[in-house]
Amino acid sequence: LCNSDSLPDCLVEDQLTRLAAALYGLVGVAVLDCVSLPICTQLTQGDYTSTVFWQRGSDGESFATRTVAAELPRDMAKEIFTYLPEPQELDPQSFQDMVTRLELGSRTAWLVDFYLGSDLDLEFEMRKLKAMLSTMEVGRVSCARHPAVCQEMSVSRYPSVAVFKAGGGHEVFHGAVSALAVAQFARESAKATNLRTLSPQIFPQLVTQGADGSPAWFVDFYAPWCPPCLRLLPELRKASEMFDTVVRFGTVDCTVHSALCRQHNVQSYPTTMLFNVSRPSQLFRGDHTASSIVDFIQDILNPQVVKLTEETFYTSVGRKPLDSVWLVDFYMPWCGPCQVLGPQWRKLAKMVSDLPKVFVGEVNCEEEQELCRQQGVRSYPTIRL
Fold first, then answer.
1. Where exactly are the transmembrane stretches of this chain (predicted)?
2. What's the 3-state SS for the chain?
């Protein structure tokens, strides 16, 4: 309440800009002309110059009015943050109740901060998030007071922020904790209910045994320090939204669950695999984009490329009608050029799928060594018409 150089303690334009930037998305900043509007004296107990914070009451109509004592933009922003609602502190019982509600069908996602000790700047960021994420609940768990909860969640670094989604799954945020970055992550993650973090405790029954009724899981084994891994995670969220009950999506942090990653022979990051209860796992070698992931999964679930064995090669290719054409790729799974060819080979099979007498096949020479020897295959990939 100022707008006049003749009045003391007026914020200059640069200070107003910095204050507005600090409160962006949370609190509007405006200037009231106290020279021409005598209402200023009624709002500030007789003072012509002051900063006043109005906050709408829970009834949606009334307002609480507070005079801001701080004078510098940074200090003013911090004081205003103290007036914003605090995230809910969760104990083991309330935390478990929250997870149970989500498992039973609640659609209200939660953003939860697992913290250790006091960090005033982090507390301000969480208050900002409480105001920015109006459709979500925001909570905090003290790992000093409730270590069992944090141990169960495999919390290994602080602060650790996670989104708990409808269905009971959760996803961990990676990066510097700032309100804008976390809010963007939270909105994207809450929508991607088909993607969840996996631990050794739930991996076997969900992924390899299909206990949740899902026939297939697409799993990303990653490390948080790996830039390509972090770029892949948003693409996974997009791809997961293209499937529902047919394919589930999961992530495994190999810096936390190293034994699980070794068990699945993960030697580089990111390593992504499609697990299917009824068949061996398939390694994804395509581009790290949502569209490539979707194409890969659809190709596996509805294959256009015919997988040939020694028996089916001679019955299908060896005895083919004269007017039929077979294009066959002889490959080794460890062969780099073969891995590059794989996605293009599947695309080719799709392109000719409408031609009734044209077939595209493949032979895994690691599994069908005798067939490849009989066919004189000495290099990989070998493509024959």
1. none
2. CECCCCCCCCCCHHHHHHHHHHCCCCCCCCCCECCCCCHHHHHCCCCCCCEEEEEECCCCCCEEEEEECCCCHHHHHHHHHCCCCCCEECCHHHHHHHHHHHHCCCCCCEEEEEECCCCHHHHHHHHHHHHHCCCCEEEEEECCCCHHHHHHCCCCCCCEEEEECCCCCEEECCCCCCHHHHHHHHHHHHHCCCEEECCCCCHHHHHHCCCCCCCEEEEEEECCCCHHHHHHHHHHHHHHCCCCCCEEEEEEECCCCHHHHHHCCCCCCCEEEEEECCEEEEEECCCCCHHHHHHHHHHHHCCCCEECCHHHHHHHHCCCCCCCEEEEEEECCCCHHHHHHHHHHHHHHHHCCCCCCEEEEEEECCCCHHHHHHCCCCCCCEEEC
